[in-house]
Amino acid sequence: MKLDKYTVGKRYGKALFELAIEKHEADSIYQDLLKLREIFHEVPDLGDILSDVRLEPYEKDEIMKQLVSGFEGTIENFLYVVYNYSRMNDLLLMIDEYERRYDEHKSLLLGTALTAVPLTKEQHQLMEEKAAKLLGYEQANLINLIDPDIVGGVIIEANYKVIDGSIHKQLERIQELLLK
């Protein structure tokens, strides 16, 4: 049974994270993965090239040697495992899963705060503090997105949860109550 790329990404990312925790290398591996993500964004087809069966193995091996030359230890070994199983085209999903687990381990909440107008620096900081406390995290990093349609208030989306405190939503609730 062939696994879909998201399942593969989750499994490899989880395995790497668990190994990183066991070896007390979570921070350094995270930094290496950020570098890898940047390389894959600069060369978007790199994963496909390294997973392509139409290329000769020696051609892919040469590209792989150049890629891993900037890494050592656990990350170098991980890259060779991923390469040997022809999963380099799923590497970004693996990095995403590692990052999600890393942030959870660090008690860092990542998400968005949707507002009708841009937040001031102080409002943004207060919003992050309240969101972190409300959702049980030590700190939050929320990206402020703007949507005038929400009228006012805020909609926070983080870790598959949505807190809708928008005026638009409150008006919808009032309308529902009045129509009952």
Distance between the termini: 51 Å
The largest β sheet comes out as: 4 strands, mixed
CATH homologous superfamily label of the largest domain: N-terminal domain of the delta subunit of the F1F0-ATP synthase
CATH architecture heading of the largest domain: Orthogonal Bundle
Q: Output the radius of gyration.
A: 21 Å
**Number of β-strand runs:** 4
Strands in their spatial order, largest beta sheet: 2-1-3-4
**Element order, helices and strands?**
HHHHHHEHEEEH
Structural class: alpha+beta
Helical segment tally?
Answer: 8
DSSP helix fraction: 55-70%
The domain count comes to: 2
Subcellular location: Cell membrane; Membrane
Keywords: ATP synthesis, Cell membrane, CF(1), Hydrogen ion transport, Ion transport, Membrane, Transport
InterPro entries: ATP_synth_OSCP/delta_N_sf, ATPase_OSCP/dsu
GO cellular component, one term: proton-transporting ATP synthase complex
3D architecture notes:
The chain is of the alpha+beta class and 180 residues long. The chain has two domains: 5-104, Peroxidase, domain 1 (Orthogonal Bundle); 108-179, no CATH class. Helix content is 60%, strand content 16%. It contains eight helices and four strands. It has helices at 5-22, 26-42, 46-51, 57-68, 73-84, 91-105, 121-135, 167-179; strands at 108-115, 139-146, 153-158, 161-166. The protein has a four-stranded mixed β-sheet with strand order 2-1-3-4. It is elongated. The mean pLDDT is 92. Belongs to the ATPase delta chain family. It is a peripheral membrane protein. It is found in: Cell membrane; Membrane.
